[in-house]
Amino acid sequence: GESEHTGLDIMAIVPYVWIAGTGSMILYSIVQYIRLRRKLVGAVAYTGNVYRADYIDTPFVMGILAPKIYLPSNIPTQEQKYIIAHERHHIRRCDHIIKLLAYCALCIHWFNPLAWAAFILAGKDMEMSCDEKVLELIGKARKKEYSMALLQFASEKPIQSLSMPL
Q: How big is the CA angle at 67 (ends 104 and 158), to the nearest 5 degrees?
C-alpha cells in the first residue's frame, strides 16, 4: 500500500543524507585548515620544530610526516618549556596521526552520537595523559608552574575538541 511506498522513498534518500553529512564534515575541515594556514603565514622559527605565531590562541601540533609545534607568541618564557614538553609528548605517541584517523572515523559515522562522544573523550584523554607524563618528568617541585601554565590556556578559551584534527 501507500505506507510501503513512503518507507521506500525514505530509504532511498538515506545514502544521500549520509554522503551530504560526510561531505560537509570534510569540507568544514578543509576550510578550517586553510584558515589556520593563513594565520600561520607569519610564524617564526623558535627552536627545532617549534614555531611561534601571533594569531593563535593555544599551542598545537600540525603536520603528519614532519609535525611542527606552534606556540602563541604571548606565552611567557618560563612556561614555554612545559608546553613544548607536552606537545613533544603528543608527537612521540603519534597522537596527531591517531586524532586524524579518529576524525576520519567521525566523518564516516557523523550521525552516531556515540562516535561524537568517543572522539571528544579520546581527545580529552590524550590531553590528560600528556599532562600526567609532563608532570612525571618535571617532578613535584615544578608542578605548580606547569599547573599555572595549563590554567592560563583553560581560562582563555574553551578547549576546541571539535576543531579539525591538527
A: 65
**60, 70 contact by CB (below 8 A):** yes
Tell me if 164 sits within 8 A of 96, measured CB to CB. no
| Cβ-contact 75, 59 below 8 angstroms | yes
Q: Contact 133/89 with Cβ under 8 angstroms?
A: yes
- What Rg value do the Cα atoms of the chain yield, rounded? 20
As a dihedral over the C-alpha atoms of residue 84, residue 65, residue 43, residue 93, rounded to 10 degrees, the angle is -20
The DSSP symbol for 139 reads: -
Reported as type and span, the H/E element at residue 57 is: none
- pLDDT tens for each residue of 98-113: 999 999 999 999 999 9
* Alpha-carbon gap, residue 127 to 102, rounded angstroms: 15
Q: Check residue 1 and give its pLDDT.
A: 47
